[in-house]
Amino acid sequence: NSRIHAEISIFHCMDIGSNNSYPSCALSNFEPYDFTVSGVECKSMEGFLQSLKVKDQKEQEKICQLTGFAAKVVGLQHNDWKIKQKRYWRGFEYPRQSIEYQLLLDKAYMELFKNERFRKALEDTGDEVLTHSIGNTNPRDTVLTIDEFCTRLMALRNRLKKRKN
Predict the structure, then answer these.
(1) What is the rounded CA–CA span in Å between residue 34 and residue 54?
(2) What is the pTM of this model?
(3) Cβ pair 44, 26 in contact under 8 A
(4) Integer-rounded Cα radius of gyration of the chain
(5) Most buried of the four, 3, 42, 76, 124, by CB within 10 Å?
């Protein structure tokens, strides 16, 4: 039993959250970052993610301009997606549990990865295991699960490390 605790203790975790210290706060989806997905300018990952709840492309573009809590609040007004389990982007419909939806999330995070300030924050996490304690694990209830979020961040960080070697 003590051996297990010793093995677990070698891992250091960093909980991603907008109210936490740097670099954790800088990796929150609430953090303002400029990036472009499919020709649409986004001001934060939260804005992009919340826009996926809306079918109308003009409305999506407006939501993509939002950051932080403002984006979250607008998204809460569109939680009817949970009934159909569909997401929308640029005129296409994505079943929430589809490979296509996962590829869209990958694309968005790759675009965010082009932002130098985001890459710096990611690099500054060192070798920490990234977690998100306030996140949701059920894909039927959230745009982005804890696993979908943290796995992408750590994969992008690994990509940074490979570039340096």
Answers:
(1) 21
(2) 0.91
(3) no
(4) 16
(5) 42
Listing DSSP states for the chain in one string gives: -HHHHHHHHT--EEE--TTSPTTTGGGSTTSEEEEEETTEEEEEHHHHHHHTT---HHHHHHHHT--HHHHHHHHHTTTTHHHHTEEEETTEEEETTSHHHHHHHHHHHHHHTT-HHHHHHHHTTTTPEEE-TTS---TTT-SS-HHHHHHHHHHHHHHHHHHH-
CA distances from 8 to 34, 60, 72 (A): 37, 43, 34
Beta bridge partners of 37: 40
Give per-residue pLDDT as tens, 77-109.
999 999 999 999 999 999 999 999 999 999 999
Contact by Cβ (8 Å): 35, 116? no
Residue 165 CB: number of other CB atoms within 10 A? 4
Check whether 45 has a pLDDT greater than 90.
yes
CA nearest neighbour of 112 among 27, 46, 33 = 33
Contact 111, 40 (CB under 8 A): no
